[in-house]
């Protein structure tokens, strides 16, 4: 490819609305352009990378015997009504009607469609297990699309669905997908990990997420300091140390705190350890619960875990945090929220396990501008319902009993689920078993966010000059930068000869034949992240030599013109490892 | 691939709702399944073919230097409002709103999106010409989806858009696309032709369609018997022979025709040549025309050409044929339509060129149950406005002045347009020219209906046993049918050895390892259309031999086991030519 007949579309300036580095670099390198909020066009450079990632995923899926199909993007409502998700799925499901007023949706996922296919086409246990996959454009009407293709509305996904007549068979395919995902992310050279995960709205009981580990990741991953334990923080139990609550040693007394409005103020003014403070959080109750409000109590330094709170039977799902007006209206107490506390509180409270272990603590008094100090459970107020409500923190005990917790950040790029019979039961997907009896099939499903994976790779592979692509998915492997191309016949001939030699050796080579200064060409190619850069100059050609620069290491070498193909082939082979 | 781990999904019965052979065979061969009207899932066999066709198209497009991009399926309304098509495009444009009530559409085509990209990314004439293409899923909300993927709502299309600063440059790329399309359809072994075409709702002034020629095609293509002239019948002029109208030789007289209701009745009862009869057709006038009805007159044996009629300035576009009630209401004449005629008619009439040449003809009298015989223009009634209104017929003069017309049927699989400045002017897509002045770019666009192309190929390549794939797009090149695989170790080992040898020689091979009778396996493979079939039997293995059958020719050969790879490789090479 020649840059003069290509669309580079690089940008010098950092686009104002891009928050994360991958989004900035994808725009600056001319990989993508936004068409509407969360909707992107893939420009030539970006598409080359996308296709290479797709190829790796397709190859690894084919290697496992998974079979590729292609399901429609536009799905009729019927199947989603059958599974129950037409009503359950929130506004992320884009629903519309066609010219005949029939209801359709843009597929964010394809469990219903593939289950319908299987119930029609597969009749015997002998045909199972089967694992189908597709690489396809999907749509999710995100409330707040952000970070470019990291959280976009239109995106490319590899989704796979497996069908079985036994849990053992499902487990075997699940394990196979687990190791296939490891292969895929390893081939791409990523620093990633698989973690236990919550199954969320897809359903099922066992699932793992695959995260690319980067400090800017939206998700928090919990590791054990001594074992292989790894899980999404959403589902990590905060294990209670075996220590009991200290005995009361202070008297409970009321303190004026009229000029204190936050936990931090309280800690600062009274030189309290934050571990002696508590805070109350209010969420809406489920509709059929008598009290419309659920009061929760956490330690001052702890953060609520929404997934855990949603598991409380009295709490509305998805979680709704109550506004101050709503809380005051229900409680009918004439105090600010910060002055609320468990003593003489008009509603039942649920307290976190850590709070249950506290003694001599400080809490709101339900009297405006006053706190109780030296409060003790049982002595001063009955112990409320206790539950695991908080996010774990570094240093907590690991739930597997080995070591303590170490939290990192990650970007979720893959998710595998054991769905079980959630969809097959709702849609009556059955096959005949060995005894000619109908049996409902068991399912697994396995997704990789292809477009997000590209952004995550950039988060891990960049420097201050731009993107540093892993060799396997680089848009081009080599770029030729000839100095003075348009005036020197020798430069032109040499550039064309090298271009021809590399192209015919099956190497993705780009020739920068623009009338630009070397500095401009260099900056563009380092921004785009071409791994190997060759500079052709009259000065070096006098010795039959050219200059090579490695994008990643910055290493510069002067090499003989005659060895160029072998040299580059070696470099690429090393890069591919 | 092994059939036991694959989804064949062949069907013995012809599905009731499938009208055309390609639709029937695609269902029976397990290539596609309908999810909703005009919306199909591509099953494994079908997808393999789809991917092979896509590869051919991509390769040929890349060869021309066209650059692949990927534009979104979901497009915001803004750009279509800018081009004017948001309102102009009919109900085939599926419009919807997102969760924020913003207007969007499912892209049936991408002129607006690419034009927006170019106006943002390209600033100088030096960067042009550029030709972008994508292979992508599109949606058109057809009023009557039919014939499977031949006229579906969701479909795969290769669309390309080129940008230029001169007509010469546009013409050059247009010519290149013309020959690229020839290459693509030739590589697929199709009997096709390029024809001059109407530009329709896409716009522009010059265009060619590419048609696969089959008797079941929806379109009529006009050829000259002696020249290279070829055009879609929509736009073929009916050339008037240079002969003048015969002089009147009969007296005009009224005849009772109360028991005559059609042209055929009239011809039969009065032994008239059909060329002496005329018929009247009524269409709605444009809204701003005084008379709400336009009356047209054609010879009894001629058919109206809607494209031509739509070009009359007084006619509503798209054409609306008037109902009998509507006509009676406007005319206020108490006679049936068949009795209407030009003499004393209350509205202006437009007559076809052929009608203008008639003399001594028969026509309705505007008196119930009576016709005038021996009517002559000018003598009996003034000659009305004359226009070219009819479809040409076999034997008409070719419009290029060479030979006469021969009409065939075809399926449109490609269409190339010189768009000119229709979109670039509306959307202000400009670049700086040599003199640093802004100039509006000139555009071309080039489409291939990938999914329809597959159906058209089947229309041309099938027999009474099923599909007969051209080698280049066959889902598998070879299938192995072992007899008694599950009981004979020798058969099993031989089958596995051949399977391994062919697979490692980069040949797409399928091993049918189902527990089925040979007849069942054979029927499935002939239905699917695998070009080369190998039967492995104990009888022939005694002589180290196997049986080969060619799907297309039916030729059977007994060949030595040791020569199998070379033999098949040769066969495939021949097939690929």
What can you see in these coordinates?
The structure is a homodimer of 577-residue chains. The longest helix of chain A is centred in the N-terminal third of the chain and has 21 residues, at 167-187. Chain A is built from 16 helices and 30 strands. Chain A is α+β, with helices and mostly antiparallel strands and 577 residues long. Chain A folds into 3 domains: 3-236 and 407-459, BirA Bifunctional Protein, domain 2; 253-387, Alpha-Beta Complex (YbaK protein); 476-576, 3-Layer(aba) Sandwich (Rossmann fold), CATH 3.40.50. In chain A, helix 1 packs across helix 12 and helix 2 (44-63) packs antiparallel against helix 6 (167-187). In chain A, strand 29 (545-550) and strand 30 form a beta hairpin. At the A-B interface, strand 1, strand 2, helix 2, strand 3 and strand 4 of A face strand 1, strand 2, helix 2, strand 3 and strand 4 of B.
């Amino acid at each position: 490819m020649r840059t003069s007949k290509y669309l580079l579309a690089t940008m010098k300036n950092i686009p104002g609305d891009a928050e994360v580095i991958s989004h900035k670099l994808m725009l600056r390198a001319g990989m993508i352009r936004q068409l509407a909020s969360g909707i992107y066009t893939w420009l030539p450079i970006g598409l080359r990378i996308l296709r290479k990632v797709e190829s790796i995923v397709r190859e690894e899926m084919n290697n496992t015997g998974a079979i590729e199909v292609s399901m429609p993007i536009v799905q009729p409502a019927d199947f989603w009504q059958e599974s129950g998700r037409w009503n359950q799925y929130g506004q992320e499901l884009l629903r519309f009607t066609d010219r005949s007023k029939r209801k359709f949706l843009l597929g964010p996922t394809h469990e219903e469609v593939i289950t319908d296919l299987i119930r029609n086409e597969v009749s015997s246990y002998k045909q199972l297990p089967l694992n189908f996959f597709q690489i396809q454009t999907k749509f999710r009407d995100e409330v707040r699309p952000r970070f470019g293709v990291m959280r976009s509305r239109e995106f490319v996904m590899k989704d796979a669905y497996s069908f079985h007549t036994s849990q053992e068979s499902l487990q075997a395919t699940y394990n196979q997908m687990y190791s296939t995902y490891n292969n895929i992310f390893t081939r791409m050279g990523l620093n990633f990990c698989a973690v236990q995960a919550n199954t969320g709205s897809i359903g099922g009981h066992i699932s793992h997420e695959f995260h690319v580990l980067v400090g800017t990741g939206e998700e928090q991953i919990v590791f054990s300091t001594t074992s292989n334990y790894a899980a999404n923080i959403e589902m990590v139990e905060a294990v209670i140390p075996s220590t009991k609550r200290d005995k009361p040693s202070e008297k409970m007394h009321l303190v004026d705190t009229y000029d204190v409005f936050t936990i931090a103020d309280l800690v600062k003014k009274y030189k309290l350890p934050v571990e002696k403070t508590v805070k109350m959080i209010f969420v809406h109750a489920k509709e059929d619960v008598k009290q419309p409000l659920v009061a929760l109590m956490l330690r001052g330094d702890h953060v609520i875990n929404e997934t855990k709170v949603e598991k409380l039977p009295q709490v509305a799902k998805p979680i709704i945090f109550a506004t101050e007006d709503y809380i005051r209206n229900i409680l009918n107490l004439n105090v600010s929220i910060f002055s609320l506390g468990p003593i003489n509180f008009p509603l039942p409270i649920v307290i976190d396990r850590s709070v249950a272990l506290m003694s001599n603590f400080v809490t709101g008094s339900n009297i405006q501008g006053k706190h109780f100090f030296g409060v003790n459970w049982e002595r001063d107020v009955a112990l409320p319902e206790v539950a695991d409500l908080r996010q774990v923190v570094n240093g907590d005990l690991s739930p597997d009993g080995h070591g303590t917790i170490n939290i990192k950040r990650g970007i979720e790029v893959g998710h595998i689920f054991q769905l079980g019979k959630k969809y097959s039961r709702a849609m009556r997907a059955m096959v005949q078993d060995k005894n000619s009896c109908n049996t409902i099939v068991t399912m697994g499903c396995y997704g990789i966010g292809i477009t997000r994976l590209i952004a995550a790779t950039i988060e891990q592979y960049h420097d201050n000059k731009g993107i540093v692509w892993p060799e396997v998915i680089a848009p081009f492997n080599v770029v030729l930068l000839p100095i003075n191309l348009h005036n020197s016949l020798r430069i032109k001939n040499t550039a064309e000869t090298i271009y021809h030699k590399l192209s015919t050796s099956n190497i993705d080579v780009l020739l920068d034949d623009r009338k630009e200064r070397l500095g401009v060409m260099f900056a563009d190619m380092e921004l785009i992240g071409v791994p190997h850069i060759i500079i052709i100059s009259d000065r070096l050609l006098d010795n039959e030599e050219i200059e090579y620069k490695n994008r990643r290491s910055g290493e510069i070498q002067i090499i003989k013109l005659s060895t160029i193909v072998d040299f580059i082939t070696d470099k690429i082979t090393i890069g591919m490892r």
